Amino acid sequence: MSGKDFGMTSMNAVRDAARKGVLASLHPLTGGALAVVREERASDFDAREALLDAALGEGRFAKASERLREGRLPARGLALIATVDGEVAGTVRLWHIRTGDGRPALLLGPLAVKQEHRALGIGGLLMREAIARAAGRGHSAIILVGDEAYYRRFGFDASLTCDLDMPGPVDRARFLALELKAGALDGACGMLSGSGAHASIIELPRAA
User: N or C: which end of the chain has fewer CB within 10 A?
Assistant: First the structure.
């Protein structure tokens, strides 16, 4: 496919998303490729699950973070897909949670990128887009469990979760948070719990 055809494919994907009422954006990537970031659709299910299985394995369902996601829907407008040449290349979702003292926040994860696209900067693109969209929707904080060396570039810090707990074992050095509103997690404490809308029985299998 020529560069011109590649660009047209990406632009068509943006127009298609717009026609369906889905917010989408076009981004240049390392090496001259183009990615479309948009809200995920039901038709993305198989491709997203295959990507997550390949990137994270079946062990992803045993993680403490999954206890906060299982049986629930992602936050509205914050389940994102990145496509390259019309194919799903990356995914990230954010979920409604509450701290033990009742403060609303979002849980980010999983974030995953297809092996063949990992050198293009799609992970960083999805992170920046997710944070911007969450802030734009008025959310106050994002919490995640992940590699501190990677996520600190986006402003995540383990010091914000010192008095918070996960519903299962967690490496405290990987238990990170980002305040979208100054002071949102000042004094926050207690066990995190899921607070998003419950999924229907059709949507429950293999929740990501």
Answer: N
Distance of CA 42 to CAs 45, 79, 96, 128, Å? 6, 11, 20, 23
Distance (Å, whole) CA 53 – CA 135: 29
Q: Is 26 exposed, middle or buried (0-12, 13-18, 19+ CB in 10 A)?
A: middle
Note the maximum CA span of the chain.
55
- Domains of the chain with CATH codes: 3-194 (3.40.630.30)
Rounded to 5 degrees, what are φ and ψ at 7? -65, -40
Q: What percent of the chain has pLDDT over 70?
A: 86
SS3 157: strand
pTM score, whole prediction: 0.85
- Type of residue found at 150: Y
